[in-house]
Amino acid sequence: MAHRIGAATAACDRPPAIAAWATAVGRHEREGPLGRLFDLACDDATFGRASWEKSESELVRRTMGLLLDKSGRRADDLDCVLAGDLLNQCVASTYGLRSFGIPVLGLYSACSTISEALALGALLLDGGAAGSAAACASSHFCTAERQYRSPLEYGCVRPPTAQWTATACGAYLLAHRGEPPYVRAVTFGTIEDLGVTDQNNMGAAMAPAAAETLRRFFADTALCPADFDAIVTGDLGAVGSELLCSLADAQGTPVRDRHADCGLLLFDRGRQDVHAGGSGAGCSAAVLAAVYLPQMRRGSVNNLLFLATGALLSPTTVQQGETIPAISHLVWLSTSPAPFAAGKGAGA
Amino acid sequence: MAHRIGAATAACDRPPAIAAWATAVGRHEREGPLGRLFDLACDDATFGRASWEKSESELVRRTMGLLLDKSGRRADDLDCVLAGDLLNQCVASTYGLRSFGIPVLGLYSACSTISEALALGALLLDGGAAGSAAACASSHFCTAERQYRSPLEYGCVRPPTAQWTATACGAYLLAHRGEPPYVRAVTFGTIEDLGVTDQNNMGAAMAPAAAETLRRFFADTALCPADFDAIVTGDLGAVGSELLCSLADAQGTPVRDRHADCGLLLFDRGRQDVHAGGSGAGCSAAVLAAVYLPQMRRGSVNNLLFLATGALLSPTTVQQGETIPAISHLVWLSTSPAPFAAGKGAGA
């Protein structure tokens, strides 16, 4: 069972474990500062397939296969997989997962997909509806460019606020038993829209969503940033990260000294031409797994708030002059499997 | 708490109630045989907005507003809304729900969205993670035509197997307490792909997914079609319905005498030019609520299996010669709030 805390947070009574994870990336991501941390890096961005969309599906298929291999499970050991991506009709996930025969819960939450998937999956386990579940999210630079922006061949110049969609996929196995980390609580995000219309500045559109979810989590739990070793956002990039820190300051819960952003970690902005940083549903899915989960398994990070952030625009809404709504779902990962009790702090 | 039954089904220990529902449709749907059953019918397909995408968002906004009105709740009484639609990046849901401030769990499961939403929502309530939740799915003929097929102005001729995307939205309120019906069990669908490539024959692509989910539900529960007053699919249309009945015959669980399809109920195929019937994520969302939930409230239908069916293609995958994968999630609705126990039958 889970139980509600405050207005917006659900805490797990038997926090499920992230029992295993797998990550795969492309060459640009391998050449970044985290390159050696990923399980699989493919220099060929096509992943051997004939179209970019098929390439991203192949990326998903390989990452899920790797998750099964690493965890020693068969596909039919999994009760469901919660998955999504950025492509129209989420076809990277559909075609990537098609061959496994696992029940699929399709999600769309843009670059916040992996925290929605981890949160929902943890609640399904804690509530008894599943014995094990996978969470998976992907993105691919080449599919995203042609769908959201312009054909690669066009060579469009990108402004400094633009981010670079990562070619990356992260897959997680949630199980009742396992080594740390555990999912202790989740806060689902509301749609926040402060009127940003520049699709080349999605960090600015997403920062208020992350700030609002953080605010609600801290209000519900009476915890504060100091209770956490790290507060990790999805892909706010340089612009959005600065905005989030300012907003958190204004909310009286400064996070600057423990905040990190997956979009800023993935690339070396000085050396790699990614402007404001990385983005994409696969960016935070791969970086959380590659960087932080091993630290939590080793015990060097004990409590971590993970907020993947998603901009919920489409090319059509941009063309129609709409503003960009955003969302951010929060997952509290901990090395402690103890159910959270209000007033007791975060614990180790 | 929920508990697992067999390999693929989860049963609710405290089956949540569908405490309220709301439906809205366009003129073509109002002129069909169910016209007077919908809460709201708007003769103006634009719903007063300047683009088709904004029209569909407005349809979602009005339907959700109606759900709150009918149920006597405020938006902040709801812990979350699980929602999705057919548009790229699910923008009908995002922009339609933006003003409510309710945490949003974005789903993508094509025309199976509403059964995924009801199933997940019920499990979140039963597992203690939410006290109340809304489920919502929409579609709009004009957005779907231009996104999936060709511009309306083109006047493309449609083959007999084609279906008509309904302009419709259905929204549901799940609560711990309430009058019937209750969600007693759910079976999440697997992705089935038997090689259909004709995007004008999606009923044929989807029927195997519904048959497979039905097969798994009956295998898990040891129930049979005779335990149910109605077995209602989403939008298989004429072609897909016949295929499903044949597949169910072959599986030894004939459903023909109690099967109905929302896509066939919505329109009068003799009088309205819809070829194989209605479709769209909003079709089954509106028809289930308008037709069957009142019957269950009155007690004239006691046990009903609802399987919305989704074709997970995109225009891009069709252009790339891919086959059409499909999925169907199952929800068992009952006038009995008793937890299901294997070997005891469906009960009244």
- Strand coverage percent of chain A: 15-25%
Q: What number is the mean pLDDT of chain A?
A: 96
Structural class computed from helices and strand pairing of chain A: alpha/beta
Radius of gyration of chain A, CA atoms, in whole angstroms: 18 Å
Q: Number of helical runs of chain A?
A: 10
> SSE order of chain A, as H and E?
EEEHEHEHEHEHEEEHEHEHEHEHE
According to CATH, what is the class of the largest domain in chain A? Alpha Beta
Give the total of domains of chain A.
Answer: 2
Oligomer: homodimer
Distance between the termini of chain A: 22 Å
Percentage of residues in helical conformation of chain A: 25-40%
Q: Please state the overall shape of chain A, judged from the principal axes of the Cα atoms.
A: globular
The CATH topology of the largest domain in chain A is what?
A: Peroxisomal Thiolase, Chain A, domain 1
Read across the widest sheet of chain A, the strand sequence of neighbours is: 1-2-10-15-14-11-12
Poorly predicted ranges of chain A: none
Largest interface: A-B, 63 and 63 residues
How does this model look, in words?
The structure is a homodimer of 348-residue chains. By secondary structure, chain A is of the alpha/beta class. Chain A has ten helices and 15 strands. Chain A has helices at residues 27-30, 52-71, 91-97, 113-126, 141-148, 202-221, 237-250, 262-266, 281-298, 315-319; strands at residues 2-5, 9-12, 17-26, 40-42, 80-84, 104-106, 132-139, 164-165, 168-175, 182-187, 230-233, 259-261, 278-279, 303-311, 326-334. In chain A, the strands form three sheets. In chain A, strands 1-2-10-15-14-11-12 form a seven-stranded mixed β-sheet, sandwiched between helices. A six-stranded mixed β-sheet of chain A has the order 4-3-9-7-5-6, sandwiched between helices. In chain A, a hairpin with a 3-residue loop joins strand 1 (2-5) and strand 2. In chain A, helix 2 (52-71) packs across helix 3 and helix 6 (202-221) runs parallel beside helix 7 (237-250). The longest helix of chain A has 20 residues, at 52-71. At the A-B interface, strand 1, helix 3, strand 6, helix 4 and helix 10 of A face strand 1, helix 3, strand 6, helix 4 and helix 10 of B.
